[in-house]
UniProtKB/TrEMBL annotation:
Organism superkingdom: Bacteria
Compartment(s) where it occurs, according to its Swiss-Prot or TrEMBL record: Membrane
Example GO biological process: phosphate ion transmembrane transport
Membrane topology field: Multi-pass membrane protein
Family indicated by similarity: Belongs to the inorganic phosphate transporter (PiT) (TC 2.A.20) family.
Protein name per Swiss-Prot or TrEMBL: Phosphate transporter
GO CC annotations on file: membrane
The keyword Transmembrane helix belongs to this UniProt entry's keyword annotation: yes
Pfam families, A to Z: PHO4 (PF01384)
Natural source organism: Sulfitobacter undariae
Length: 494
């Protein structure tokens, strides 16, 4: 006959052991996820090298091209892990999209943008940063592009690990500059172009933040602070959606569809205006129906901005894929061309198989490593809701159009993150303004001590300083890495 108390103790011990095993399994699964991701990424990089071997097996420099293809795939993975967060982060942070939904939309639209509209003609020396003739010969040029590609990928990888969204364009620019200096000295660099790029460090986030804050002020003053919020939303939300549709039509015509449609800025604005007016007219009955039965409070307004925010994230992803895929595969295409023909002075067209590596690499990078930066941009800098996230997405497209009109080089990363900061700092200013007004009208109202008010800031200063520091050192850090890699390559092959 068994002792009931002994049986109970045995069961309790068994439960504790099972609980430990359960926690161990969960911990093992959690720890193994990064390893699985890195394993899949390594397989993709190796497949990129195999594809290069299949397409250029006849080339005398096939080994160089295979290595370059692997580096291009590595760079594309890092662009997906870091850069795409700027498009999807606000929508995820506002709970308009789940993480899975955001990744699915981004993979589809990034790949479509890269494959349909991303086959840009690139210069053999990226964007005129260094003089082509300074390279001397094709071999030096190939090693310089190899060093630039590898250094840019390493820097973006490091920034993603730290949790800082950086400009992949600036990383490539720094890589090309560093390799050019190592190969031909400081005189080879086009310093006016570099000065304009440096100016964009300041111009991009200020423009993006200012425009995002302006739209948030418009939404607050015309809708949120109105006595009848729903009635105000019926008037203003169709107008805002029309502005968004027109802006994105202009943006995509100028930046994302330049391979399919060739138009100048006035024509693109005219097309965007027509799309905007049509969208405004279509949205009037839609918003009227959507607003029926909603309570007169801020939470009800979020419903009306959900779909426009998802659409804007998809369109931003398409345009990003069309533009930034060249950062991954531009130097690779230049290496392929120089290896195959020996020519490195003329402009080249990116081959289709190279574009496929870029498109799939961005998608894999986003899927495997993107959630970390998406969460950071979407929720850790400042708290976003659909209205605020909408302002960030709209400012990204708006700023690129203004910059194109003014001829200013800007970074999509800096614009989008600047928009998030702009929204956060505007909320701080608006909250302070309302506290001051309340204190004037009701002197007896409770006020916070200075230390408490600093603690209650709506923008996390630690993220702000980390991101700004990463932006400032991106070009010099990538340049230094590239120069060192170029020297090491020359020593090893020499």
């Amino acid at each position: 006959m068994t002792d009931p108390k002994s049986d109970l103790r045995h069961l309790e011990t068994l439960d504790r052991d099972l609980d430990r095993y359960s926690k161990l399994e969960m911990g093992t699964a959690y720890a193994s996820r990064p390893i699985v991701g890195m394993g899949i990424a390594l397989v993709f990089v190796l497949l990129a090298g195999v594809s290069a071997m299949l397409f250029l097996g006849h080339s005398s420099n096939s080994a160089i091209v295979v290595i370059a293809a692997c580096l291009g795939a590595y760079m594309a993975l890092n662009i997906g892990a870091n850069d795409v967060a700027n498009n999807m982060g606000p929508a995820v942070g506002a709970n308009a999209l789940s993480m899975g939904g955001a990744i699915a939309i981004a993979v589809i639209f990034e790949s479509a943008g890269a494959l349909l509209a991303g086959g840009d003609v690139v210069s053999t020396i990226a964007k005129g940063i260094i003089a082509p003739e300074s390279m001397g010969n094709a071999t030096t040029f190939i090693w310089a592009m190899m060093a630039a590609l590898f250094s840019a990928a390493l820097w973006v990888n490091l920034a993603t690990w730290v949790g800082a969204p950086v400009s992949t364009t600036h990383s490539v620019v720094g890589g090309v500059m560093g390799a050019g200096i190592a190969a031909a000295g400081f005189g080879a660099v086009n310093w006016p172009t570099m000065s304009a790029i440096a100016a964009s460090w300041v111009i991009s986030p200020i423009l993006g933040g200012g425009i995002a804050a302006g739209f948030l002020w418009l939404i607050k003053s015309r809708i949120i602070y109105q006595e009848d919020k729903i009635a105000a939303a019926r008037v203003w939300v169709p107008i805002l959606v029309g502005i968004m549709a027109g802006t994105f039509a202009t943006y995509l015509t100028l930046k994302g569809l330049k391979q399919l449609i060739s138009v100048n800025l006035p024509m693109a604005i005219l097309l965007g205006g027509a799309v905007g007016i049509l969208s405004w007219m279509v949205m009037i009955p839609v918003i009227k129906k959507q607003s029926e039965g909603l309570e007169n409070r801020n939470k009800s307004l979020k419903v009306m901005f959900g779909i426009p925010l998802v659409v804007s994230a998809a369109l931003l992803s398409f345009a990003h894929g069309a533009n930034d895929v060249a950062n991954a595969v531009g130097p690779l295409a230049a290496i392929v061309h120089a290896s195959d023909t020996g020519d490195f002075l003329d402009a080249i067209t990116i081959p289709v198989w190279v574009m496929v590596i870029g498109a799939f690499g961005i998608s894999f990078g986003l899927f495997l490593f993107g959630p970390k930066l998406i969460r950071m941009v979407g929720g850790q800098i400042t708290k976003l809701n659909p209205m605020r996230a909408y302002c960030v997405a709209l400012s990204a497209a708006f700023t690129v159009i203004i910059a194109s009109w003014l001829g200013l080089p800007v970074s999509s990363t800096h614009i989008a993150v600047g928009g998030v900061f702009g929204v956060g700092f505007f909320r701080e200013w608006d909250a302070e303004r309302r506290i001051r007004n309340a204190r004037t009208n009701m002197p007896e109202r409770k006020t916070y001590a200075p230390e408490e008010r600093r603690r209650r800031k709506l923008v996390r200063r630690s993220h702000f300083m980390t991101i700004i520091a990463a932006w400032v050192i991106t070009v010099p850090a990538a340049a230094l890495l590239s120069g060192l890699i170029f020297v090491l390559i020359n020593l090893s092959v020499g």
